């Protein structure tokens, strides 16, 4: 499998995207959405309060995820680790990482906040400016092949420099295993980008569609606002005409 190198990110994280214009698209469960998508709810297995056994995405994002899965070689599938994430889970993740930094000796609250911002979005209930996963347009995932999950160089939710999507592109004389990891990341990256997602450069597993971060990278308008619960019927509308108008392919 030969794929081009992952390019350097041009995402200007200092730019502020506009608030999301909620398009009213429903969320859908992913476990039965496509035979080439498997759900492994990582936070449920880790015991986080509020985590669920199912993974959800907005319907449009799920359809694009299925397109990405079809780009993979025969016998390979996407493994979704997390999709829509409740405020409860987000708050637990944020505080858990904050406490881990304090345990490492971090004391300056501003420095802690900056470090947190690199890896965990600050919890919010602002539906116009939601954290990516609260919108239902962000997904964390990996790839499984005939022999199991592909080697990606770090675990999911690893906060080291090696978690950066391009980290293995920058090794000048990679060993055989490092080349394998680099190529596996390329496979995931190009499948997702071709399907319309954007990647967060610090996390090889994190991709978005329709979110404010996606809008900042693509210079389009965000159309997925926040959803506070899976049962939020106000947001889960069947009429997606507004979504279709807002989306720019």
Question: In short, what is this structure?
Answer:
This protein is α+β, with helices and mostly antiparallel strands. Helices cover 31% and strands 12% of the residues. Residues 233-240 have low confidence and may be disordered.
Task: Describe the fold and architecture.
The protein is α+β, with helices and mostly antiparallel strands and 249 residues long. It has a single domain, classed as Muramoyl-pentapeptide Carboxypeptidase, domain 2, CATH 3.30.1380. 31% of the residues lie in helices and 12% in strands. It has helices at 42-45, 59-70, 87-103, 109-119, 176-194, 212-218, 241-246, and strands at residues 27-29, 37-39, 56-58, 77-82, 138-145, 148-149, 198-199, 206-208. The strands form two sheets. Strands 2, 4, 5, 6, 7 and 8 form a six-stranded mixed sheet that branches. Helix 2 (59-70) packs across helix 5 (176-194). The radius of gyration is 18 Å and the shape is globular.
